[in-house]
Queue: 2 jobs
Job 1
Amino acid sequence: MFPIRLLALAALTEAHFVLQVPTSLGFSDVLEGTAPCGSFDISSRAGESSWPLAGAPFQLITTHPQSDWQIRAALLNDTANFQPLVPVVSQQGTGTFCLPAVPGIAAWEGQDAVLQAIQHSADGELYQCAAIKFVPGSAAAGPQSCKNSTNVSASFKPGSTASSPGNSSTTTSHKSAAEKSWADPASGPLMLAAPLLTWLAVLY
């Protein structure tokens, strides 16, 4: 088996983005714009990853110099309703982009779910998904490759919420742990809960 980085680089000549961690349900450059999972079966459990409620790494490699990202999840038995795991992230620069500990949804402990990554870029919306299961426990250790490329930077969009692109939808009654840690954008500088400070440092 080739290392994650080599597998991704093999596809980069045509790719928009390649989800590296967690394991993608599949990648098709031609059909990556097909919601909700880039043409792959949203019910597939291929490569299922355990996702600790305290957080798990999210890593990809992108060829788009500027994008907005939605990182969302839906229960396997309710894939019409995606919930944001973090606010929308604005990314600049090409290469590896990684968040070391994206939090899970406590109410979904022990349940099978689907993680969805949506890239909003110059050529439209692109999708990849991964099979995950929310489990209790401390944050999972990320791979050594979980660090942004030197020219990649990112920040949360204040006050952002997940929208409903493609044929997937979002309910707004649930707020992730990450969203709850942000202050009201109108009140001044955004404040973060202590558990998020470590992994958010990678964004800057």
Job 2
Amino acid sequence: MPARLGSIGRSDRGAATAEVAVVLPAVVALLGLLLAGATGAVTQLQLEKAAQAAVRQLGRGEPEGQAAATARRIAGEGAGLAAATSGGWVSVRVTAQVPGPWGPWSGWTLAAEATAPAEQPGTGAGPDPGTGSGHGG
């Protein structure tokens, strides 16, 4: 006697649902980690830009408060700036917290550093104003 069509595969009923229920949390966790990594990469790029801008300002002799404001504007309000001058060089370290995929229970601190020579007063890098731009005319 042939088997009834409705009874074939009856023991596998709901297997796909169970497999999805087991795999779905792992997929969600992996997605959270990937997004956290992307957030960290973007934050690191912003910190690099902020450190470069701040060290240029301090190298030109601008106040540290102004350089810190520039760093916060580029890297975010939570960014911190530490600056030092030694032997004619200016060094800057900008740090910021990166939020993790699970809120306050995760995350890490990233930092970027930049160093530039401090300009001496009256030795700007641009052309002498009395000599023109160097173009014929």
